[in-house]
Every structure is written in C-alpha cells, then in structure tokens.
Design brief:
Residues 7-71 form the Release factor glutamine methyltransferase N-terminal domain. The chain is α/β, with parallel strands linked by helices and 312 residues long. It contains 11 helices and 11 strands. It has helices spanning 4-17, 23-35, 47-61, 66-70, 91-118, 130-142, 158-166, 179-191, 232-235, 251-263, 279-287; strands at residues 2-3, 44-45, 72-75, 78-81, 147-152, 170-176, 196-200, 214-219, 264-273, 291-298, 304-311. The strands form 3 sheets. The protein has a 7-stranded mixed β-sheet with strand order 7-6-5-8-9-11-10, with helices on both faces. The protein has a two-stranded antiparallel sheet with strand order 1-2. A hairpin with a 2-residue loop joins strand 3 and strand 4 (78-81). Helix 2 (23-35) packs across helix 3 (47-61). It starts with a strand and ends with a strand. The model is unreliable at 122-145 (pLDDT under 50).
Length: 312
C-alpha cells in the first residue's frame, strides 16, 4: 500500500507526461472526488482505493475532461452538474457573468436612488448602509422583480444562475436549444431553488413576450471560427456549442445581436463572449445594428474576449 502523498506525486507525473495542462490540480481533484474529501497525504490507500484512483487518472491521461470524470464543474460561487452534453465553463466566461452581475447591481442601485428621491429621502443608496441595502434587495426579491435579465444559449445555466444567485431582485430567463443540455441546466437550476426560468428553445426566437422590456442580455454563444485547432478536452465539448458559422465564426453571434436588439429596452445592455480575433468585427456590427458604445474587454490572459454595448 502507498500513501496518498506517493499516489498524488505519481499521478501528477503521469498526467504531466500525458500533456494534461494542470496535472497537480487534477491529481488532487480526482483524489478528492474518489474519497469524498481531501485525503491526508500521510494516510495509506488500500489496494481497492488505489486501483480506483489509478483508473480515474488513466481516464484523465486519455484527455477525458476532468469535469466529465467527476460530473461536476465550478463557476464563480456555484457547483454545477456537468456531462458531455454541455459545454464546460471556463475562466473567461466568469468575467462575462461578472459583467452582467456588475451591470445588474448598478441598475439596482440606480433604481433604489430613484425610489428614494421619489419618496423625498434624497441621498439614495449612498445614505444607507450595506445591511439596509441588502434588506431592500431582499424585499425587492420577495415583491415585484426590479430587473429582467436574459441569458441566450445558456448551456449548463452557469451565467443565468450566477446572476440569479448573486443579484437578488432579478428575474432571470434562459434559453437553450439542445434538449440534452437543457436537461442539465434544469438539474442545476433545481439545485439552486429554480431561480431561473429556463426554456428548451432556439435563442433566436425565445421570449417574444419580453421584447422591448429586458434590462440585460448576456450570451456565451457558439463562436469558434473554422479551422481552429482545439485541445483534446475542447474536442469533447458538444459541437453545437462550439462553431459559430461563417468564415469568421460570427454568423450566430451576429444573429443574437439582432435578437438582443429586439429584447432590450433603450439603454439596455448587451454582453457577448467571443474569440480573441472577433472583437473589432463584433463591435462594428453592434454599432450599426441598434447599439452604441461597444467596448471589448480582456480576459485574465489579456486577450480581448468579450464585448458589451448599449441599446440605442
């Protein structure tokens, strides 16, 4: 029998030899998944446990995504179910969700200020403390929603659920065309209290009842241009979630921009994830199709990966 310290070191070595980008992290995650907790490095693993662990490591050496092996993935403050039927969420999408969350919070503050002014209280949110602000948000959540957010091409529901759980008072809608991905999104939504209204429908035609009334549209759509060479892990993602169509991969994103223009009210915000080569083309399209002030932002690696614009 070997200690977990030895097993983790051996697994890290073979994972690195197989080309896995984060061998030590993956070795630890597989051990924690198998044991249900972080194993003590000094403790001994019996033969059965060792065999099971080496089996999991072998799957990862074959470049099966870690999230498919464990059936879970992490996104901001969420733990989400993951299967081969859904796109695996990645760090840059957390920034996209964060932009939607920050925008929603700012809109909430503005509306609270407006409400205070109408009541003759002046000062607005700046005059109340954090606890009082949270109390107002809880009250708003229990009453009529103050903000409407739509997530198009929701996949696992990661963005929609992040907005719904981090910004009380929002009414969040999400659309997913794949029946298989939709079922995973439903599981994740149920886990967090069914905070999102999710439908299994083409995002280009979803939510006609909301046209002209939405505050924020956010989307991480299929946008990969043709001819891009993927890592083995990305090749395991559903093809429907990858390719954007057309010579530049922007056929579907452009259609979603037009759909967002129908859903948003004047002044509403659109936030779109895209490839690092697509920012300029997407900004130009937004600025000539119902939007203004299009700005592209960088991800953690300083690559231009998402753009936001305001509805005219």
């Amino acid at each position: 029998m070997a200690t977990w310290a030895v097993l983790l070191n051996d697994a890290t070595y073979v994972l690195a030899e197989a080309g896995v980008p984060s061998p030590r992290v993956d070795a630890k995650e597989l051990a924690e998944f198998l044991c249900g907790h972080k194993p003590n490095p000094r403790s001994l693993a019996d033969e059965c446990t060792t065999a099971d662990y080496l089996s999991l490591v072998g799957k990862r050496c074959g470049r099966e995504p870690l999230q498919h092996i464990t059936g879970r993935m992490y996104f901001r403050y969420l733990e989400l179910a993951c299967t081969p039927d859904v796109f695996i969420v990645r760090p840059e999408t957390e920034l996209v969700a964060g932009a939607a969350i920050d925008t929603a919070r700012e809109l909430m503050r503005q509306r609270l200020r407006s409400t205070d002014n109408e009541r003759g209280q002046g000062g607005g949110v700046r005059a109340i403390g954090k606890e009082q602000y949270s109390a107002v948000l809880r009250t708003t959540e229990q009453g009529s929603p103050s903000l409407t957010v739509v997530d198009l091409c929701t996949g696992s529901g990661a963005i929609a659920l992040s907005v719904a759980t981090e910004v009380p008072g929002t009414r969040v809608y999400a659309a997913e065309i794949s029946p298989q991905a939709f079922r995973v999104a439903e599981r994740n939504n149920e886990r967090y209290g069914n905070r999102v209204h999710i439908i299994n429908e083409d995002a280009l035609h979803a939510f006609p009842e909301l046209e002209g009334a939405v505050d924020i549209v956010v989307t991480n759509p299929p946008y990969v241009p043709p001819g891009i060479k993927h890592s083995p892990e990305v090749q395991r993602d559903p093809q429907l979630a990858l390719w954007g169509g057309g010579e530049d991969g922007l056929d579907l994103p452009r259609q979603l921009v037009c759909r967002a223009a129908q859903l948003l009210h004047p002044g509403g915000m659109l936030i779109v994830e895209h490839a690092e080569t697509q920012g300029e083309a997407l900004r130009n399209f937004m600025n000539t199709h119902g939007f203004c002030d299009a700005v592209t932002h960088e991800d953690y690696t300083r690559r231009p990966r998402w753009t936001q614009a305001r509805k005219i």
